[in-house]
TrEMBL record:
Belongs to the bacterial solute-binding protein 2 family. One of its GO terms (cellular component) is cell envelope. It comes from Vibrio chaetopteri. This is Autoinducer 2-binding periplasmic protein LuxP. One of its GO terms (molecular function) is carbohydrate binding. Residues 35-290 form the Periplasmic binding protein domain. Residues 1-19 form the signal peptide. CDD domains: PBP1_ABC_sugar_binding-like. Keywords: Signal. It comes from the Bacteria. GO terms for biological process: transmembrane transport. Its main location: other.
Length: 358
């Protein structure tokens, strides 16, 4: 009897503790999440981010709202401020530190009831130190989901070299911008591979600002400036499209005299991979925001928020392959988001529902 009584008391106290925690945390069914997307709604990568995140929200019973900053950091902050002046107030906000705008966005969120997490691009070390001195943020700022961009920069450059049959030649790197962490880390990884390989050298690195038109103009100049280019690496697919256009206009055979490698998984770049215009491709990090929603789901069920922030979300994309087909179909409704193990690294963001396994 004494043991049973002790068990009853334990259960009562445990239930009280969970209820107390729940008092400060919204219930799953009415939890609102605001994702501040810094890109355009129909831009290939950011559109994929939205689609995967919305599928996760629908499956997990979360109310997801998305606003878009159209790659303008001032507009992004303005959109966020205006939204927070309206009702209902979101319970969680997911931010992206695109072009160094993360701290300004964070400072715009003044309500003590809103919890915040970052995805894709983390705050800089200096910004983290500033935030760490504000006690309120130690409770409200939750660890984010960030892909290992350095690793994929290295691996993608290495794979491009392999696809070029390992023959000696120069690399051209078209990076993104100078302030976004993903851009800097991808570029650093690619540069590291080049510096470690005695059969290659870096002809030049430029920043294409993620833009097809800018990369096109840059590639025209770079091909005239450097006559030993065999490998052209870009930090995203849009810049690859611009580079390919310039290479074709220069009548340089792609896939024999010069090889193009890039990152992202838009339909256009998947088609380019299948057609041989792109020799090396990697992607999968568009799942980061959806995985943040998986974290929120577990948090609302009184599970500890994972402290890990860096995940290997990228995979090389081969054609043909099962991964290629998954990316091409974009049938995210087939994913069992409740079974994604967010404690793992790498995470499998494409766990199929049980009926899909039969």
């Amino acid at each position: 009897m004494r043991a049973i009584w002790a068990l009853c008391v334990y259960c009562l106290l445990s239930g009280t503790a969970i209820a107390a925690k729940g008092d400060n945390t919204p219930h799953q069914a009415d939890s609102r999440v605001l994702f501040v997307n810094p890109g355009f709604a129909q831009e290939s990568f950011w559109h994929d981010v939205d689609l995967y995140a919305q599928a996760a929200a629908d499956a997990l019973g979360l109310q997801l709202e998305i606003i878009h900053g159209k790659r303008d950091r001032l507009l992004t902050r303005q959109e966020l401020v205006e939204r927070l002046q309206q009702s209902p107030t979101p319970d969680f906000v997911i931010l992206v530190n695109e072009k160094g705008a993360g701290l300004a966005l964070l400072e715009s969120i003044t309500s003590p009831q809103i919890k915040v997490t970052f995805a894709l691009n983390d705050l800089s070390s200096n910004d983290k130190r500033l935030v760490s001195n504000i006690p309120d943020w130690s409770k409200r700022l939750l660890p984010g989901v960030f892909p290992d961009n350095y690793h994929i920069g290295f691996v993608s450059a290495q794979d491009l070299f392999v696809k070029g049959r390992g023959q000696p030649g120069d690399f051209l790197l078209i990076s993104g911008d100078k302030t976004t962490p993903a851009s800097n880390n991808r570029e650093a990884g690619a540069t590291s591979f080049i510096m470690q390989n005695e059969n290659t050298s870096l002809a030049q690195r430029v920043h294409g600002d993620w833009s097809e038109s800018i990369a096109y103009e840059q590639t025209k100049i770079l091909l005239n400036r450097h006559d030993n280019v065999r490998y052209l690496w870009t930090a995203n697919d849009h810049m690859a499209f611009g580079a390919i256009k310039a290479i074709e206009e220069a009548n340089i055979p792609i896939g024999s005299d010069i090889f193009v490698g890039t990152i992202n998984t838009s339909n256009q770049v998947l088609n380019a991979l299948a057609q041989g215009e792109v020799s090396s491709l990697a992607g999968g990090h568009f799942t980061a925001v959806g995985l943040s929603l998986v974290k929120i789901h577990h948090y609302l069920h009184n599970e500890p928020w994972p402290q890990r922030t860096k995940y290997n979300l990228f995979q090389p994309v081969l054609y043909p392959s099962e991964f290629y087909n998954i990316l091409k179909d974009k049938d995210w409704q087939r994913i069992d988001f409740r079974k994604i193990d967010i404690q793992q690294n790498p995470i499998d963001p494409f766990v199929p529902k049980s009926e899909e396994l039969k």
